[in-house]
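Q: What structure does this chain adopt?
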Amino acid sequence: MCVYITLLSLFLVSGSSDAPFTLNLYVDGDSFCPMEPIYTKLVIKNTSNTVQKLVDVRGPGSQIDFLQYIIVDENGDTMPGLGQYLDYSPSILQLKPGDSLVCEMSLLDRYGKINQKDYDGYDIALWFIPPGRYTVAVRYEAKKDAWPKRDFWRGSVESNKVCFVVRELSEDLKEPFNRCAQIWTLLLNNKYHGNSVTSNAADSMVEDLINEFFATYKTTPYHPLVHLSLVSVYMHYIYYHRQNTQEFEKRYIATWKELFEKYSNSKLVQHKLADFGSIMKNRNRRNEWLSYLNYLAEKYPETRVGNEAKKLLDEERKLQK
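A:
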């Protein structure tokens, strides 16, 4: 029997009986759409009576190399994930007895399938977890031959299992999903509705499709997932160095901001504010980011986005001290 466990639920912890840690896994919800990020929270707690050294798995490289999220469908098949990082040196933390390390991430950032079909039956290159019932658990594993000159605890511990469902998209989300999938497929594979096109033709078609996508949903109240798909389209257009990137960069940032202001009380949108901060800081626009957090906190008080903006502002101020 599969018992659903969310952030508000009780849980059971599993792991190696002689390990000095326990892993507690939470999933923020139990039912999601194919395009929707599935946010998780992993708490690694030192249950021993001594200080323990472990890898700081909050970094992207060490998170992939030392944490495995095991997502299994109803047929027993395991969801594929991203490969390993090689060019980094893991940070080591010291956890006192009773202390915990918290690692948060979206499953969709690392796990999914890419070669699937859209709702019209065409092959697409769009990364997502398809509809179905799943269980997920996390294994922290530090092998004996991993970074042999570094001093940290080595062994394997598994978390509790959590169940969740990825449901079929509602009718109002199928068309924007198809639009997003078509654009991604042109960007990645130079294919449209199953037919190969030249690179130049793909460039032109992508820009036309993005403009059409933007015009169709610009003034329409719609689901924030549609807005997020438009954000991802702009991001990948810029990443693949298509034409007019300066103009699309402006649209990209503006679309992010519109997301937070249009859906200020959305839990899904609240989760994305920190992601936007990373994007702005990577573009050397940290001051603009801090100013925007102030704006959100003052303009949208007592909303999920406004409260998240206040929290992120406090964190940024602590870093400046």
